[in-house]
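FIELD: query
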Amino acid sequence: MLKFTAWIFFILALCGLSLWRMVPQEEIKPDSPLAQVERKVIDEYIIERGYIEASEKSVIQTYISGSIISMKESGTYVKKGDVVATIDNSNYEDDILEYGLDLKQEKLLLDINKKKFALIEFDEERDVIRRKEELRHAELEYDEEMSRPKPEEIKKLDIALKLGVLDHEEANANLIRQKRLYDKGFLSKASLEPHERRLASKVEKVKEAKLNITVAKKGVPDERKVELKQNLERAKATLQRSEKDKQRRLDEQADIIKVSEQKIAEMEFKRKNLVEKSRKSICYADRDGYVIVRTYWNWRSGGGYSSYAAGVQVRERDAIIEVVSPGKMIASAIFNESDFHSLKIGQKVEMSMPAFPGKSFTGELKSLGAIGKDRNEWIEGMAGSSGVSMYNGKIAFDQDVKGLQPKMSIFLKIKLTKPHKGLVIPRSAVKSLEEKNWVISGGNKIEVQGRYVNEFDFEITSGLNEGDTISKFFPKDNS
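FIELD: result
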């Protein structure tokens, strides 16, 4: 029963809270002073804070990486050509020496490779010449045998046959004479046999001479033709292979020489570059003026900006010093992206400086940066991205102001439009969100239309009338 009662009360409490939330909460009790909507002359302007800088200055950059050996202090007056900083170049000198040794070794290797090229060319050319002679011999042999039988050869064979026939007839006549003597009993059988053998030999020679003529008239046999042709093709292929091997070896060696020459050229270029950089280890002033030492982000000490000084490590192209000419000064400021389109070159600027209390100066907006940077990049000690872009501007003084020094602070007031009458309320009375504006009037939140015109006023275009009363400050709890 108790549990049931507790659940009933809990449900009733939820319903009551829901009904209370559904009731419009229009009544907001003002907890701030009141202000009236009034018509007055509106002076629309932008107020910014800047600093003084020289119109003529130069930035001294480093040309090498290394630690700073010495440098001028801020405020030191220097003349054009004076040494303002010296960077340690010992690492460059070591690299130059090392490159010198490597160059000598590489040039010696290049000389060896060129001699190898000449040796390869000599050896391969000798082999090619030998192969050419072999081919010439094969061609002569082929031509010689393929042109047979020649008339001269046939004549020689005919003469050999005739001589063989004459020798055969002489041997035969001689044998006949010896047989007659044998028949008469003047010779023995043994004395007759040499003549018979000589006749048989002459008969064979005649047969051989006839066979030679027959073979010669038939020409080169097919088997020999094939052999001769194969010998010729083999000699040609061997020559071509020898020439290709020669060219391949020469090309390989030429590539080695080319790579070595390119390496030498690269090393000489790098060494020359190092020599030039080493000579630029001393930074000189390029104008007469005062030295201003620049700052850098010192991440080694946990973050924060520090001034460049002796012992600090720098990189190439680090801007370490400004030389400011003690002449005409200008004002420099950065403007919020919300004001960018309201600013125009040539707008008049009113200026005041703590260094000149009670005095005001006039000037003109001479330049406005076209490319913005994140707000945190402009402010020393800030990291990350703010999401808001800022644009730098330069303001020239209308008159010569004596006693200006670089880095003096200055307050700028830039009028955006001509003064005009309108309904205004205090800027603090307005709450803006997503291009909508609200004020508190009579305890109610009212939407109004208008725009912020300066650091104090909001111009009303609709939603309020002249003489209406509103809260001077919009309550924070009702934002």
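FIELD: remark
Confidence is low (pLDDT under 50) at residues 19-30.
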